Amino acid sequence: MSGGAADDPYDVVVVGAGVVGCAVARALARYPLRVALVEAADDVGEGSSKANTAILHTGFDAVPGTLEAGLVRAGHRLLGAYAAEAGIPVEPVGALLVAWDEEQRAALPGLAAKAARNGHHTTRLLGAAELRRREPHLGPGALGALAVPGESVICPWTTTLAYATQAVRSGVRLLLGRRVTAVSGAPGGPHRLSTTRGPLTARFLVNACGLYADRFDALLGVQDFAVTPRRGQLLVYDKPARALVRHILLPVPGPLGKGVLVAPTVYGNVLLGPTAEDLTDRTATGTTAEGLAGLREQGARIVPALVGEEVTAAYAGLRAATGREDYRCAARPALRYVTVGGIRSTGLSASLALAEHVLGLLAECGLRTGPERPLAPVRMPNLGEAFPRPYRDAAAVARDPGFGTVVCHCEHVTRGEVRAALASDVPPAGLDGLRRRTRAGAGRCQGGHCRPALQALFEEHRRSAGRRRYGKDGGAR
Ligand SMILES: Cc1cc2nc3c(=O)[nH]c(=O)nc-3n(C[C@H](O)[C@H](O)[C@H](O)COP(=O)(O)OP(=O)(O)OC[C@H]3O[C@@H](n4cnc5c(N)ncnc54)[C@H](O)[C@@H]3O)c2cc1C
């Protein structure tokens, strides 16, 4: 899975293994092509894809007629169906766009009309009384809402992992820990990629570099847009807060995007956020006291009882804003090169539709895929609270007592799940990756209690993998 250029030259190299690059690699895996997915980090989904608001958007509020509007709408349908097949937890809780003043209430019919222009005809205006019946813990002063059925909460970690797993099982070579630093090649010839772990060659190239998509473009002499990292800070409330919120509670959108929301998560928590701060530092994923204080203030207005609830975690992610309310996707046939850039605040929702769009752009560049074939099936371990978890599954425990031994008590994660993640097709590189595959360490104590046990399981796995690789006498097999 890692390492060398055994299949070099590749038909297609996809650079960037976020949710978008993994979806593109998975789509390419349907064809008899040599494909590599190259990622600078030591795991998939380490960029914007690991720290978002985890909503499967319908696209009701996108700018009508944009590429984003069409792809989010299609992506919502595609990912909804794929999630059921692949075991990605999704809860279609629906959204309420809450108006807190007269101006916002007056904007709701316009938002319903916009939703209709985006193909969503099921939104409904709610008066204050019905809104309160639906959300009894809402703060005072809510005047009404637009109900948007279909808006759902999803596990973003499992989504990226499912795509990557299916791509790898279907023959894509996943090359982790390799930053592409330069691209060269004679006109008409293959691309020669310099990476931090040796060269690669590709007939076609896809830039799915997220926050770095403009810098990757520059490696090929392309200058189309500049990325501004737009930070979103979020607070995660502990499980008891889940009873306070039934829907995704959205504000009426302002000029900086979707605004601060309160939403349940598929893990049984409540999210408050995100902020929207335009920065220059593409690595500024830390939270700030000011940002979190602002969130608490807004959260106290939306659901006042949240103030008394325990916070489990705070995190921040960066959106790839480009100064345009749309994606920046382009085919450059002369370069046999496709850019999938500016995938701002909806890339998780649009990912599967984006992947199909990229196949079309690659065809424009001259890629002939050959006949389609079925992908290797994938069924991901369930991380969702609304679906059966292994520690409650008598049959799983009977098969492997490891599934009856809880190692992370906050999140009820068992030794069997940790071992399965460590032995999976796309294994974690560290405890953070393990958390995204199992929820271990994601709970109230943030790994304070279970970290040593998790570390020991990691070491045990490394030792036994080393023994399998080298044999008892230490000689390579
Ligand atoms: C706060 C926040 C909230 C959001 N909420 C939602 C939401 O609720 N719903 C939704 O649908 N979307 C949401 N989004 C948007 C979504 O998270 C992004 O659109 C999506 O994750 C973008 O994925 P990506 O693959 O393009 O980028 P990334 O996940 O950033 O992946 C790009 C990858 O490229 C790699 N890379 C870059 N340069 C190189 C190089 N030279 N060589 C090798 N690798 C390289 C990086 O290491 C990185 O892993 C949110 C985003 C944020 C920040």
Automatic annotation (TrEMBL):
InterPro entries: BFD-like_2Fe2S-bd_dom, BFD-like_2Fe2S-bd_dom_sf, FAD-dep_OxRdtase, FAD/NAD-bd_sf, G3P_Oxidase/Oxidoreductase. It comes from the Bacteria. Gene3D superfamilies: BFD-like [2Fe-2S]-binding domain (1.10.10.1100), D-Amino Acid Oxidase, subunit A, domain 2 (3.30.9.10), FAD/NAD(P)-binding domain (3.50.50.60). It holds the Pfam family Fer2_BFD. Residues 406-460 form the BFD-like [2Fe-2S]-binding domain. Residues 11-358 form the FAD dependent oxidoreductase domain. This is FAD/NAD(P)-binding oxidoreductase.
